[in-house]
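User: quick one, sequence for these tokens?
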């Protein structure tokens, strides 16, 4: 048998966490085992970055539907009804396109791609793999969306890959479940991986003073407000320390970004906090840091930034919950703190800023943890195994 012919489908070409993880996966799949193509519902940075690695197809979807935030999926406005009415035709046209492509498996990579691409692939009589990178839970998605997605998970995909055990549990499909659904819909966990080739070749200095950063898109559940409140509690103790918020708002969350800047001013932190915006070379920026902070206010499906910080040998403070607890061994390879708790986050930052030995110990252990458990080569091999098992079935 030749390589498995796979079509990846993703709804956006913007550089979100799931898209960056997909880019790494595509680049590290063994081409003797997997022949791949990528279909996107728009053109953009991810398409541009992968044009030399795989064949790209652009199949445009309405901006209003493609860019709808996860927390609004259950409450579409009346103005969108006409656009939603065009979705059946969109799916039929997409199905015809997939049927004409030389592929065996359609591997969807986002919630919208799971539903639209999954149905289209089923109509085209192709095998479907859902790569679920979002927790299917009421604290993360509207309750109607949660119920619908869990129901569809029992009928559309032939196999499911979840990016963490925390994500898989929210689907109601256990890897060890003995029921009929679990046997028919093989569900497995494959953690996202890190590419150590992306580490800067040499140490990068950030200048005098300690530098602490929260990295991630500016969004209410990413906890930039908690970070600022924690800084407010400790910044007078560390006058040489500098703090950064790295990332920008996506999917119509600019109002929250404005709120965060106003909060920074209200707390009197404008002199010690810098808003860096979107940074393309995140790993080079992490190399300048002394501490990496993750402050999500609801459980994270995985936590790509966490393994990026750990791989760079930086001590990481992360919210306890979701995928973070599968990555960090508390007090061994990082520090876990309760969610939505500025005091606990401030206490953890205080410990690290005042103890260089602790920073060094946790940073080294974190790097070793990623090397052992979260290398992209291992991720690619496990995904290839899912393809092989699905083809055999």
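Assistant:
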């Amino acid at each position: 048998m030749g390589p498995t012919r796979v079509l990846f489908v993703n709804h956006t070409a913007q550089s979100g966490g799931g898209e960056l993880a997909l880019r790494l996966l595509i680049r590290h799949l063994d081409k003797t085992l997997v022949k791949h193509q990528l279909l996107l519902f728009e053109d953009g940075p991810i398409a541009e970055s992968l044009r030399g690695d795989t064949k790209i197809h652009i199949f445009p979807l309405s901006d209003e539907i493609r860019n709808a935030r996860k927390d609004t999926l259950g409450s579409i406005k009346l103005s969108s009804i006409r656009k939603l009415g065009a979705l059946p035709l969109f799916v039929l046209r997409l199905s015809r396109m997939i049927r004409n492509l030389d592929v065996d498996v359609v591997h969807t990579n986002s919630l919208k791609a799971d539903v639209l691409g999954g149905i289209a692939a089923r109509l085209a009589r192709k095998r479907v793999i859902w790569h679920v990178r979002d927790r299917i839970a009421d604290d993360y998605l509207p309750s109607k969306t949660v119920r619908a997605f869990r129901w569809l998970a029992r009928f559309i995909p032939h196999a499911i890959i979840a990016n963490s055990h925390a994500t898989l549990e929210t689907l109601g499909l256990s890897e060890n479940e003995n029921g009929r659904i679990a046997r028919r819909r093989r569900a497995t966990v494959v953690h996202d991986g890190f590419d150590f080739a992306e580490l800067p070749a040499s140490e990068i200095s950030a200048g005098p003073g300690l530098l602490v950063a929260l990295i991630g898109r500016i969004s209410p559940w990413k906890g930039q407000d908690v970070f600022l409140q924690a800084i407010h509690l400790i910044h007078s103790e560390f006058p040489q320390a500098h703090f950064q918020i790295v990332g920008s708002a996506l999917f119509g969350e600019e109002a929250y970004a404005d709120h965060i800047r106003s909060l920074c001013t209200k707390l009197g932190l404008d002199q010690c906090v810098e808003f860096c915006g979107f940074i393309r070379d995140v790993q080079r920026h992490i190399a300048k840091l002394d501490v990496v902070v993750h402050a999500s206010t609801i459980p994270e499906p995985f936590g790509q930034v966490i393994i990026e910080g750990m791989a760079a040998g930086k001590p990481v403070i992360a919210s306890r919950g979701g995928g973070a607890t599968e990555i960090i061994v508390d007090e061994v390879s990082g520090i876990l703190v309760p969610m939505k708790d500025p005091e606990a986050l401030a206490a953890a930052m205080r410990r690290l800023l005042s103890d260089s030995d602790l920073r060094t110990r946790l940073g080294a252990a974190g790097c070793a943890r990623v090397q052992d458990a979260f290398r992209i080569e291992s991720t690619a091999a496990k995904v290839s195994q899912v393809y092989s098992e699905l083809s055999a079935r």
